[in-house]
Amino acid sequence: MVSEIGLGSWLTLGSSVDRAGTREIVQAAYDLGINFFDSADVYANGEGEEALGSALQGIPRHYLVIASKCFFPMSEHPNDRGLSRKHVVESVEMSLRRLGTDYLDLHQCHRPDPSTPLDETLRAYEDLIRQGKILYWGVSQWSAAQIEEVCQLADTLGAYRPVSNQPQYNLFRRSIESEVIPSCAQRGLGQVVFSPLAQGVLSGKYSGGAIPTGTRGADDFRNAFMSDFLRPERLERVDALRPLAAELGVSLPQLALAWCLRQTNVASVIVGVTRRAQLEDNTKAAGLQLPEAVIERIDALVPAD
């Protein structure tokens, strides 16, 4: 069971947010009812996990759902990447040390790895679960066909199926609705989605096309994946949502997060924040129900690509 709002650490904790800020944000998240904390070995090359692990100390471990991931290169060495048994096992061991915990509640394949036989990855996770080093495993950004394949293989081998998928999902990125969500719903996987605010664009902070100093959009290191979200026509659509949010008495981020959570297969939306105030605003989207008429108005203002 994960909180509807999860706290992520990509480009924030251990990176743009220092250790003191990370502790404040993590404690605030827990106090606000968040129990799901997501990271990955590659975030700030391990610093994201270290910062998160340090900040979680003092909170009862069994109250937390701590997740991490592996796939992307951690160095120039050929075995320090991918989903081979060697890398998955070694990555989990290093994540445990960085996070300061004996086990991970969830470990996910950050991307599919065509260079590794699927049964090798599956059996590695089976061993890690039996050793008690992870409790559940999942995938991230896998296609419906890939999810179907690994679930069928798990059933054939009598192994544990993945329990989650971590895709990108927001008003501008809806591709999972056609195949991934139906497949996951049938197979028993839940979505824990990233970038539900389109890297902050759906918060309205770039209204009128302005890129304020100090935002991710103005940071050439952290805005590498934002160019499509910052196109003028997208920003105009975000501005068009503002009156609707005001009519409902909610903020733009709350509206965008609640739109994602309207999907029953979406268990949690993972937010990345740099300030406590952002987190306090985001968590108010939990439990917010949008009437069908409002959903239709949102789709008219921000139609699917």
Topology:
Elements: E1 5-7, H1 19-31, E2 36-38, H2 47-56, E3 65-70, H3 85-99, E4 104-109, H4 118-130, E5 134-139, H5 144-157, E6 164-165, H6 180-187, E7 190-194, H7 232-248, H8 252-261, E8 266-271, H9 276-283, H10 292-301
Helix pairs in contact: 1-2, 1-9, 2-3, 3-4, 5-6, 7-10
Main sheet overview: 8 strands, parallel
Number of strands: 8
Q: State Rg.
A: 19 Å
Instruction: Give the count of structural domains.
Output: 1
3D shape: globular
Mean pLDDT across every amino acid position: 95
Order of neighbouring strands in the sheet with most strands: 1-8-7-6-5-4-3-2
Kindly, what is the distance between the CA atoms of the first and last residues, rounded to a whole number of angstroms? 32 Å
Structural class: alpha/beta
Low-confidence stretches: none
What is the annotated CATH architecture?
Alpha-Beta Barrel
CATH third-level topology: TIM Barrel
- What is the H/E order? EHEHEHEHEHEHEHHEHH
Task: Determine the strand fraction and express it as a percent band.
Answer: 5-15%
What helical percentage do the residues reach?
25-40%
Q: What is the fourth-level CATH superfamily?
A: NADP-dependent oxidoreductase domain
